[in-house]
Every structure is written in structure tokens, then in C-alpha cells.
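Quick sanity check, guanylate cyclase:
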Amino acid sequence: MLFDEAEGKSQDLENNYDLLDSWKKRSDELLYSMIPKSVADRMRGEDCIEMCETFESITVLFCEILGLHSSTVEEALSIVDCLNAVFTCFDALMDKFQVYKVETVGYIYMVAGGAPERTDAAVHAQRVASVADAMISEVKKLKIKGLTEVGVRIGIHSGTAVAGVVGLKTPRYCFFGDTINIASRMQSTSTNGNINISMVTKTLLPSYQYKFQTRGLVKVKGKGEMETFFLTKRY
């Protein structure tokens, strides 16, 4: 009887360990969905403030989903479904091209290359350019499937930025600096179906792999006039 009782307690203990391990995995998955794994693992033993990093060169992309408007609850629900379909397609591209999805805010999808895993400037610029090209291709596929009203305009810029974990209750890995502002301006001055890039990003992309269309000087809010280019083809 004592043996049976001990065996029962041992089984209960084993079940509790399995349950604890299962919950730990779920907790890690949730954390990794908000913060890069490499950063989250470091957070376990460091102060968040001490983990702020300066990146001498990253490439930032902003992609805005166009053509979605709502005036009724039904239309709003349809937009949510549409955004979910588009963003799910985009999410699948992140690991493929080794870039990081920073966040989505409304109709905007933000991506960073070269952080938190550092790479050479030419490498992260090409990865982000490839993602931008793939995003446009994915939207074209969705149009064929019936989402005919959906469009995108994309902006890309490369430069220095600071990154760190912000928030305690819902921590996020965020980027700060003028590079982010300029990348956002590249997006807002782009047009439907195009990838608008700054001169800095253009110099990082090899001309034998990419084709560019100059836009001349474009008025950029807060920056005056900047020379920008449409990335029109990837060989």
C-alpha cells in the first residue's frame, strides 16, 4: 500500500512538472512574440535600461495598406479580416528573409533589418529590399483571390538607430532615432504599388541586382527636399 501511495505521488509530481513545462513554453512563446528571442533571453539577467543598444546601421521599412475604408460595422469587420490576411502573409516573410517585424499600427507594418542581430549594411539593406518586393508580390496574389481593393505603398531608409525594450506590463522591442522618422517619410511620400527608398539605402544596393527610377527632389516633411528613388526591379 505504501508503495502504491508513493508511486501515485511520483506520478502526480511528474504530471505537475509536465504541466509546468507546458506553461513555461507558452509563456516563452508569448514573450518571443513581443520581443526577439535573443533579447528576451538576455532580459532574464539584465536590467532593461542597460540593454538599450545603438546600431550604427540598420534598414527600416514601413508598408501601408491602401484601399480599405469603412463606414459601417460590417465594413469594419471586413477590413479586420483583410488586414489579418495581408499581415499573416507578411509575417511568413520575416524568417524567410531574416528580418524583424517591429510592429503593426493600424494599416502600417514596420520591419527592421540589421537588428537585433547585427549584419553588414549591404546585407540588411538587400534583405529589406527583398522583403519589400515580396510584399508587393503577396498583395498581387491576394488581389487574384478577391481582395481587389488592397494596395500597398512602401518606404525604406537606412541609418543609425537606438533599440531597446519599452514597457513592463506589455514590453515591446522598439526603435528610436531619425532613421525611423525618415523611413516613415519615405513611405508617406511613396505611391500605390511602389517602393520608395532614400539615397542612403540606394547606395547600399548593388546596381547589378537592382534597377532604380529617380524621382528627383521630393519634399519630405521635417526634412525639406530629399532625393529619393523608386526601386523598380530586382534581377
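Posting the structure with no commentary besides this: The first strand starts at residue 53 and ends at 66.
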